[in-house]
């Protein structure tokens, strides 16, 4: 049986996890799961998996992650990204009015259905979300760092971070069996 390549992407709200995951999926022919998309409605306080130390330990008891990518983005960049972020709720498609706007303002490009802005993406809620993320994520990041699977990337533009992530994954993926079926697990 082929070995699975398991990876997680961590970062605060608006850090580019979805964008990076899509690029990884396209570049490497992988699948990804978005805990934010699938669990948003069912988990209170925007906690996904693995976002707490207990969840990370539970995941570790089932599967060993091969790689964890941590995205470190400055607060001001996150604030700008989130205040401009609009979402098509049914599909999870994300638009940014600054650099990826819909063709028709307020409407999804594919369905024409209305876009929404999550209350927790509005500037007044952002500081609390970031503080919560930092408090909850630190022990998870420390766990993955101690296991030697954590790779951190800092910057303000996904396009500048991506080449480094792409290079890391190219190296890591070539150390896996060529017939490995892989998934990207996004946080």
TrEMBL record:
SUPFAM superfamilies, sorted: Microbial and mitochondrial ADK, insert 'zinc finger' domain, P-loop containing nucleoside triphosphate hydrolases
Keywords from the UniProt entry: Kinase, Nucleotide-binding, Transferase
GO molecular function: AMP kinase activity; ATP binding
Gene3D superfamilies in the cross-refs: P-loop containing nucleotide triphosphate hydrolases (3.40.50.300)
Pfam families reported for this sequence: AAA_17 (PF13207), ADK (PF00406), ADK_lid (PF05191)
Record keyword Nucleotide-binding present: yes
Coiled coil: none
Signal peptide: none
InterPro entries in the record: Adenylat/UMP-CMP_kin, Adenylate_kinase_lid-dom, ADK_active_lid_dom_sf, P-loop_NTPase
Family indicated by similarity: Belongs to the adenylate kinase family.
Name of the protein in question: Adenylate kinase 3
